[in-house]
């Protein structure tokens, strides 16, 4: 959304009974004959002068509501709103009077903050024209015969120019060039390129930000602070309230502001604006690898060792611009030789949004869960585990008020399993050992691929296996592995259990458990299938298979031989033979 450019033309529209002009940027100068009205952003500087006395109340009221919305809300809104200023612009190619409106679907910081509206071939202009009963005119058609065809919905603008005076019949792309040239010859327009990425104000009027290292000197002008005096530190102050003048709070701290010009040595004043939040967020990760380096941003050897960042986890809605800026910074740092890579992040992972009571959980909506309440009732580990268990992390998920109960029960079971069994020091059994190695494998795999929820489900299944097939008894090696596996998600409980079971040091220094691949292979037995005592087939089946499962598998494997016959008796020799007696 932020990268790319569009080529088009800037066009000046004269205003009736005024010397002012409205400049617009259009990618489609060939549709100029189809412009039937104009729209200014509510913040446009001409709005006040263009508003006629009888429209003043409507316009002022509209501006007030529009400015209360964010750009995103303004662009997303399906319903078109607006107010007529009472003034008219003149279409430069046709001389037609175009009513000038204001509407919040035009943003002041995109293009020129004003647009010419071609409702026949632009969807938003079409909606607006329909809402306010403004004329809609076709200026592009597949043939000259279609020139009179009414426009039912905004039509894509590829084809032949119609209703366009001397340009009728011309291909739209040729028309684009021809009209741009005509405008340029008249001195009322020119070809231009508009970039989607806009200039962004880099200074902020607040205390908390990196001071911009510039000194203003009455003789030398703005002078950069010399390298050896960097970084410029924020002054320590008791309060940093706004000044009330619109200036940065730093402007009020005279003994910080007053300094010496590095060039001429005469008195100068520090720049008091600070950098925006994203200035620091574009490179802070480089500092993590060398936080105490007073000589450089970071040591290049360390940067080569640790950077770029392997995995970046963040919300998609905030990530776009931040990632873009971080890339700018890193590419620049590479160009000046500070780092030797030019992409800051190798892999990006956007976590999903949490919904609650049918809406996105957000502070502004008020539908939030206070984690402190849950921590008091269930503990940090249970909350943490539930957040990981709630669903795949990249998918939007609904918060379930009772979901944490199940996770809490699971943690209680882990706690009891370890504390009840450790003293007994049970001998290792094949069943439990295999289940433990299977669990280590599954959890390791799933954590590596961000499938925490299914990893936790594996642990829950493991507890069931221990209770159903292992008589709820587990040996110490298996219990220690289980503690290590839950440690990343339930660190407090894991650390506590680790100590209670006589280990020294932190569970996090004990190493991740390792599985034996040989124990993952299920042991099988060969079962012979007979019909009336004759061997028909042999099947590989898991060791310890139940009688019912063995019969079911054997019936399915010999369904052809059994077709149309009645089974009068089934005989099972465990793990060896299934015999069907049929007639
Ligand atoms: Zn100076």
Describe it for me?
Helices cover 34% and strands 19% of the residues. By secondary structure, it is an alpha+beta fold. The strands form 6 sheets. Strands 1, 2, 3, 4, 5, 6 and 9 form a 7-stranded mixed beta sheet that branches. A 4-stranded antiparallel beta sheet has the order 11-10-13-12. A hairpin with a 2-residue loop joins strand 19 and strand 20. The structure holds zinc ion. The site of zinc ion has 8 residues, from loops.
List strands and helices in order, with pairings:
Elements: E1 5-15, E2 21-26, E3 37-40, H1 47-50, H2 56-67, H3 71-76, E4 83-90, E5 97-102, E6 114-117, H4 123-132, E7 140-141, E8 160-161, H5 172-186, E9 189-195, E10 214-217, E11 221-224, H6 254-257, E12 258-260, E13 267-270, H7 277-281, H8 284-288, H9 300-306, E14 312-315, H10 316-335, E15 348-351, E16 354-356, E17 359-360, H11 371-378, H12 380-389, E18 397-398, H13 403-422, H14 430-448, H15 452-469, H16 476-486, H17 491-500, E19 524-531, E20 534-542, H18 547-557, H19 559-562, E21 567-573, E22 577-582
Parallel strand pairs: 3-5, 14-15, 16-18, 19-22
Antiparallel strand pairs: 1-2, 1-4, 1-9, 3-6, 4-5, 7-8, 10-11, 10-13, 12-13, 16-17, 19-20, 21-22
Helix pairs in contact: 11-12, 12-13, 13-16, 14-15, 14-16, 16-17
The structure holds zinc ion.
